[in-house]
Structure formats: structure tokens, C-alpha cells
Amino acid sequence: MSDNAIKIGVSNKDGQLGFLSGRGGLREGAGRKGIGCTKKVSLTLPEELWNKLEADCTATALSRSEMIRNIITAYYS
């Protein structure tokens, strides 16, 4: 077993816990840039529509979020 201990620290930006290593660390501006404001929603659809959505996601290699975002964007464009 390694002598390296796992360190957990609090992000100064979001207040969320994260893993820290002996090198590097959390840096302002690091990571993937956001594409918008994230809001969690619950969506109820008939099973038939869920099956169609899942099939389209698989066929296009998109996540559910990407597919639904594309549908909403196309509707409002």
C-alpha cells in the first residue's frame, strides 16, 4: 500500500468538497467552460416517448441532456 494519503479540501469558489493531491490544486479558470446556467428539472413523459428519445440519443451518440437541449434550442430558434 502506498504512503500517499488522500486529502479532501473545500473549493474556495463553490464550497464543494474535492480531492487534493500534493501537486497542483484548484485553480481559478481551470477546467471546461460552462455553456449556460444549470437548473435541474424533472421530466415526466410516456414510456413510448422515453424509448424514442433513448433510441435517438443512441443513434446520434448524444446524451439525454444534449438531445433535449438541441430540441429546445430548435423550438425557440
UniProtKB/TrEMBL annotation:
Entry-linked SUPFAM superfamilies: Ribbon-helix-helix (SSF47598)
Transmembrane parts of this sequence: none
Gene3D superfamilies xref list: Met repressor-like
Domain of life: Bacteria
Pfam families: RHH_1 (PF01402)
Residue stretches making up the Ribbon-helix-helix protein CopG domain: 39-76
Protein's name according to its UniProt entry: Ribbon-helix-helix protein CopG domain-containing protein
